[in-house]
């Protein structure tokens, strides 16, 4: 009888442990904000008056040769509808893509195909203040 209770207890514990592992595991192919083949290659603060108001994130997909960018709110602008904008292009100005409006969380994603080239990217989270990067993420 004691062996049967111990076996039942161990089986229940094993089932609970395996259920917890499966429930807590992230999907193996979870897609980021730009898609499943993109990896983040840069994150830059968007400040206003010395205070960070947002984050400009840049992603790259080696399988497609495309870059992607988003501008997120941070602190008081996170989850608050404010003017948010993001733009991306090849460093020569071609392939320009942008998105700007009053958004609650983020502007983007925007994309440019630039294999073997540098890109220009910018992000705005509060009207009037932009973080702009030129000739970056070359490759």
Descriptive notes:
This protein has 1 helix and 8 strands, in the order αββββββββ. The chain is α+β, with helices and mostly antiparallel strands. It is globular, with a radius of gyration of 22 Å.
Outline the secondary-structure elements:
Elements: H1 2-24, E1 39-48, E2 51-61, E3 66-73, E4 82-90, E5 97-103, E6 106-113, E7 119-126, E8 129-136
Antiparallel strand pairs: 1-2, 2-3, 3-6, 4-5, 4-7, 7-8
Could you give a short description of this structure?
This protein has 139 residues and is an alpha+beta fold.
Features:
139 residues, alpha+beta, 4-stranded antiparallel beta sheet, 1 helix, 8 strands, globular, disordered N terminus
| Global outline | globular
Strand content: over 45%
Q: Order of helices and strands, N to C?
A: HEEEEEEEE
| Terminal residue distance | 69 Å
Mean pLDDT: 82
Biggest sheet strand order reads 1-2-3-6
Major sheet, described briefly? 4 strands, antiparallel
State the total count of DSSP E strands.
Answer: 8
As residue ranges, the low-confidence spans are 1-29
SS content category: alpha+beta
Specify the helix fraction band. Answer: 10-25%
Count up the helices.
1
Based on CA atoms alone, the radius of gyration comes out at: 22 Å
The protein's oligomeric status is: single chain
């Amino acid at each position: 009888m004691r062996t049967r209770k111990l076996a039942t207890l161990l089986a229940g514990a094993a089932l609970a442990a395996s259920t917890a592992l499966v429930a807590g595991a992230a999907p193996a192919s979870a897609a980021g904000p730009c898609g499943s083949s993109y990896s983040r290659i840069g994150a830059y603060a968007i400040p206003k008056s010395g205070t960070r108001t947002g984050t400009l994130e840049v992603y790259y997909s080696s399988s497609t040769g495309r870059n992607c960018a988003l501008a997120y709110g941070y602190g008081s602008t996170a989850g608050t509808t404010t003017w948010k904008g993001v733009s991306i292009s090849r460093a020569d100005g071609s392939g320009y893509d942008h998105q700007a409006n009053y958004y609650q969380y983020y502007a983007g994603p925007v994309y440019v195909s630039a294999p073997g080239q540098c890109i220009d990217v910018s992000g705005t989270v509060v009207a009037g203040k932009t973080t702009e990067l030129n000739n970056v993420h070359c490759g």
